[in-house]
Amino acid sequence: PQGREEAKAFINAFLKRSMPKMKDEAIQDVLTRKAVVLEHYSKTKAKQKRKKPKGFTAKQRRELRLFEIEPEQQRYTLFLPLHELWKQYIRDLCHGLKPDAQPYMVQGKLLKADLHGAIVTVTKSRCPSYVGITGIILQEFKHVFKIITKEDKLKVIPKLHNVFSLEIDGFVSYIYGSKFQLRASERSAKKFKLKGTIDL
């Protein structure tokens, strides 16, 4: 703590700096006769509105070719490690896919799971040329799957009027594309209702 003389010297020095135009006698007169009120005005910072980052429009995405896979990268073997990662992801999601696992539980998990990396086969279709196509899902959009086949061909398969099957550890599940027309991000939050037979 400061002593009395130190405090007095500090106040005199502070007042000289704050009021350089006043003489020492005038400062002493102010100290003797009046109370000095020291005020501090905090500068209020103007609130800056956070600008939400705007994503690319569909036209900009097409122009930038964000979702296009280069021809030299369209090789089946290149994406086999992705498939292995997907299998491990599904095993972790379904707690190991044990033989005594409930099919409804596994199907419920698969409905909301990310399918990038899954090997799917078109088992039924209104267009006969699609039936039998098998490949790894590289991209999933709202209405189509983009898959790479063993022949290193990139196929765009519509979900509408197609039934897909995927197999993992002996468990086969069927995807009715007509009821699956959602983006992957939307699908993870959707509540699916169990229904009976679904026609193409």
TrEMBL record:
GO BP term, example: tRNA 5'-leader removal
A UniProt-annotated Pfam family: RNase_P-MRP_p29
Record keywords: Nucleus, Phosphoprotein, tRNA processing
One GO CC term, this protein: nucleolus
Classification via InterPro entries: RNase_P/MRP_Rpp29-subunit (IPR016848), RNase_P/MRP_Rpp29_sf (IPR036980), Rof/RNase_P-like (IPR023534), Rpp29/RNP1 (IPR002730)
Annotated SUPFAM superfamilies: Rof/RNase P subunit-like
Subcellular location: Nucleus, Nucleolus
Function: Component of ribonuclease P, a ribonucleoprotein complex that generates mature tRNA molecules by cleaving their 5'-ends.
The protein's name: Ribonuclease P protein subunit p29
Species of the source: Tricholaema leucomelas (pied barbet)
The organism's taxonomic lineage, starting at the top: Eukaryota, Metazoa, Chordata, Craniata, Vertebrata
